[in-house]
Amino acid sequence: MVDALLLALLVLTLSSPVLAQVDTIPHLSPFRPLDLPAPNIWRAGDGRPGPEYWQQRVDYRIRASVDPAANVLTGRETIRYENRSPLPLPYLWMHLEQNVCAPTSVASTLDQPPLVFGEVAFDFSCQGFEGGNALGEVSSSGRPLDHEVYGTTMRVDLPAPVPPGGAIEIEIAWSFPIPPYGAGRMGIDGDLYEIAWWYPRLAVYDDVRGWNHEPYIGAGEFYLEYGSFDVELTVPAQFLVFATGELRNPETVLTTAQRERLERAMASDAPVAIITAEEAGTPATRPSSGGSLTWHFTADSVRDFAFAMSPNVRWDATSWDGIRIETVYRPGAANWEEAIRMAEHTIRHFSERWRRYPYPHATTIEGPIAGMEYPMITFVAGTDRENLHFTLMHELGHEWFPMVVGSNERLHPWMDEGLNTFIDTYGQADYFAGTAFGDTIGQAPLHEYPAHAIPGVEQPITLRPVEHHDLYWTAYRKPALLFRLLRDEVVGAERFDRSFRAYADAWAFKHPTPADFFRMMADGTGMDLDWFWREWLYETARLDVAIAEVKKTNVGTGIVLENRGDMVMPVDLEVTYADGETETVRLPVEMWNLGDRFLWGAPGRNVIEARVDPRGVYPDVDRSNDHWSVE
Fold first, then answer.
1. Based on the domain organization, do 507 and 567 belong to the same domain?
2. What is the pLDDT of residues 550-581, one digit of tens each?
3. What is the DSSP secondary structure assignment for residue 143, as one 8-state letter?
4. Inter-helix orientation angle 514-525/493-506, to 10°
5. Do 68 and 236 form a contact (C-beta atoms < 8 A)?
6. What is the mean pLDDT of the chain?
7. Does a structural domain hold residue 323?
8. Would you say residue 158 lies in a domain?
9. How many CA atoms lie within 13 A of 506 on its CB side?
10. Are the beta carbons of 587 and 562 closer than 8 angstroms?
11. Residue 257 lies in a domain
12. CB-facing half-sphere around the CA of 188: CA atoms within 13 A
């Protein structure tokens, strides 16, 4: 009976190399649509910002000082909050992330486990340090404002609601002891300070969720509004300061030689030493030997501001397409002489491939923080050459995701860490092209799959980062794998790249959601990809495609492929014929439209060997059923 049925099918199908589905079994279709929010006037059906898309604007004017003797930062800020929403706002929510180091904080109470990133442990605690914000004045137009602090968030009640189209200015004074190690985001190492999430700032109010006031406990990073910064930092005169934004008073805080060298670097393809190894830490690097100096920086269209300071660093600079690229590192840092070339390659590679870097400079600071990103400035720890390049490229890659494309990192880390790790794999392959490392780095996430995608243990990517047991996998490496497969195996490089660039352009300096990304990729590729997002992001599906049967008849050979897992993907089928010819047939994912078994026919050919996924690019969990040959 089976032979007769197969023969009938072969007669119908083997007269030409056509495809057929067999053994249809009723089931819940893997191709059913995702349940996404309905499009509206703010977010269009094609995934782009709608005709009435809006987002708030926040501008900061900050005056702060750092006392290295006491390790205390003291500041005062004026915040201008512009309400562009259609609703009046009677109160504002703010973030006070330094309270993560307070002894009563959620992070301190729960002792959050570290993120193990390869051989590096990214500690989300303050390592026992007792800190936190000490708030002074919270006022508007000289009038004190009622406010209540809830751990790392604060609600500020206003004397009158801010109307649509209106604005309010708030003044806040604060100080905090600088933690030696602050949740892996900032810290001190000797006389090197890396300072971040250091000022009270507004939470995001958007059209999707209203106030996004998720507390900060370490694992989830940041979601912030765009605006401008005008920042003055007063520090001891022997310190150099590097920060987000453009330095507005170089004639006051830099030497004549340093200013001249920076001008030369802007006209040079080769790196220029702004501070040489011999000069580092000497009085020759500073215009004043005593007292203090105030550094003035401004920035626009940024969502955050960070800075670093030290009296004893080397400073290299170069440029590409009018962008100043800098590396700052301590004299004993290993492999950092090459870091400036790595940084220049990164900015150029990502700019040419995805979207031009939009800011005037990109500065990387070597220090105690394993890796962290802020607009125009990144913190990177010194490691061996390959790891140094990856970390440096990864942190600079965050200038695109999420510094420019401003997704919510507290909810969707795959939209910044994942997309960034994905583009990093191509950047590393390009930098190390022609070496064993460079030629294989793209397959690294696939090779990590068995150790992390463990049935019953692996979690869906779409959980909040604070719920993930293996954030290294779910936020970084698995997204890199799925996007490589989507680009290289499902969609095709040209269609994917065009759609991905369109997404980055459409949502630059805005707040995309997962639904916006899904819709833009569908619109740009012309492909319904709901099945892909469901099994890779919302589920922990596993791929197992088997060669179930190979039947030979007088009209040719029929190969029955069976999907024994709960993931659907395209299939590469390599067949070898009796005459010695070998060909690879690429079967699109639609092969599974009618069920879990699919018949491929080779009319008039005698197949002696067949193999599924001959290149080994898919995470098939059972390779033993991928091969068949004549015994």
1. no
2. 999 888 999 999 999 999 999 999 999 999 99
3. E
4. 140
5. yes
6. 94
7. yes
8. no
9. 24
10. no
11. yes
12. 17
